[in-house]
Amino acid sequence: MSDPYRWSAAARELRERAAACARSLDHGCVLAAHVLLALAETPGAAAELLEAAGAGAATLREAVAASYDRAPLLEGVPLDTWSDEMRELVAAATEIADLEGSHEVEPLHLLLAVTEDPQASAVAALRACGLDVARLRERVRARLVDRRG
User: Fold this and answer.
1) Whole-model pTM above 0.85?
2) Cα(65)–Cα(113) distance, rounded to whole angstroms?
């Protein structure tokens, strides 16, 4: 698990919001799709990019709710215990932050990380919305480059 002190306040809040999203949808565990939904529902650059790509919060909420039947169920695992998918997401976001030269994991790093694994629940939700995931990743990378100046 990555160092929680390396996560920005916004990224830590998104982890909590992801768990709240899973609970609000009556899902049994927190997956990358719930992080994606939290990103879409939280004002900021990630939500703007998702909205511009055609995956606003309401659209994503429907896709995440509908696709959960295809997600791996972890029976008996409390929501504060992370799935393997979430552990992989945390590692990927931390690696992306490192490659970007950022001391902290930020929401845009999370957005790039949730789209990294083509088998992940977040990618399935984006595809259900009709998004070109590769194009979204390009836009996220461009925004990260713009931020670095």
Assistant:
1) yes
2) 21
